[in-house]
Design goal:
One of its GO terms (molecular function) is hydrolase activity. This is Alpha/beta hydrolase fold-5 domain-containing protein. It holds the Pfam family Abhydrolase_5. This protein is of the alpha/beta class. It has a single domain, classed as Rossmann fold, CATH 3.40.50.1820. It contains seven helices and eight strands. An eight-stranded mixed sheet has the order 1-2-4-3-5-6-7-8, with helices on both faces. β1 and β2 form a beta hairpin.
């Protein structure tokens, strides 16, 4: 066995210039990892009403407030009678105000929309957040749970265990997880597919219909991409749209309104 003498160690030692560059590279890598962690753990501010005007214009008398019931949530309610409660689970790492536009648009039809704020903006951290919101606001109302992307998958999981309370499910660029089967339920389901979505692949969304009731409705939003369901800007792997965001929102809103109008009264 060769002994590691001081002479041998000096031969293995890096020259000063190499140590400098190695230290610089290490510092850059650590800085990059720190920035990624900070961006993940420190979420952007939650600003109500910043960009919430719906495609058809601002409905009169709608209020949008930040409330707290077992956690923060945005409460969007019409000025008149409320006949339905929509609980909306945001997409993964998406701030909840990105979906405020939809709640304001639906308020004209007597729909109150509540959007929970999840830890780290991940609905998987609180799948049952809808419980407290339904207890607080749901009495005597038709209950709909909806969600985008990861939020949609978590909404489907919640609906699976609460078919006695939830009447309908709306999935936006989303589908039930492989172990969540809703086929034997009486839920009314609307599945919205963005035609050019490359995050929730069209084949995966269509395959998800096999785990939904046989009368589940699939509606394709022509030319749209994954991020067009919310207002948070483009995302990695989004796809390339062939329509404007505004045009896609108008189609999304039309499909949701038609679906809600077809629901039986509570």
């Amino acid at each position: 066995m060769t002994r590691l003498t001081s002479r041998n160690r000096s031969r293995l030692a890096l020259p000063p210039s190499a140590r400098f560059w190695l230290g610089l590279i290490l510092a850059l890598v650590l800085g990059y990892l720190f920035a990624l962690a900070q961006g993940f753990l420190v979420r952007p501010p939650l600003v109500i009403g910043q960009d919430a005007v719906p495609p058809s214009g601002q409905a009169a008398g709608v209020t949008s407030t930040l409330e707290n019931e077992d956690g923060a949530f945005i409460d969007i309610r019409p000025s008149g009678e409320v006949n339905a409660l929509l609980v909306y689970y945001p997409g993964g790492l998406v701030r909840p105000q990105a979906y405020e536009w939809l709640g304001r648009a639906l308020a004209a039809a007597g729909v109150q929309t509540v959007i929970p704020v999840f830890p780290l903006d991940l609905a998987v951290t609180g799948i049952n957040r809808a419980d407290a919101l339904i207890r607080k606001f749901g009495e005597g109302k038709t209950i709909i749970i909806a969600g985008h992307s990861l939020g949609g998958a978590m909404a489907a999981q919640y609906a699976r265990g609460h078919t006695d309370q939830v009447s309908a499910l709306i999935l936006m660029g989303a589908y039930p997880a492989g172990n969540v089967n809703l086929k034997d339920t009486r839920l009314r389901v609307l599945s919205l597919l963005a035609e050019n979505d490359r995050v929730a692949e069209p084949d995966a969304v269509r395959d998800g219909l096999n785990r939904l009731p046989v009368d589940a409705r699939l509606t394709v939003i022509p030319g749209a991409v994954h991020s067009f369901f919310g207002r948070y800007g483009p995302q990695k792997g989004d796809g390339l749209p062939t329509v404007t965001h505004a045009a896609a929102e108008a189609q999304i809103l039309k499909a949701v309104r038609v679906f809600l109008n077809g629901l039986p009264a509570r």
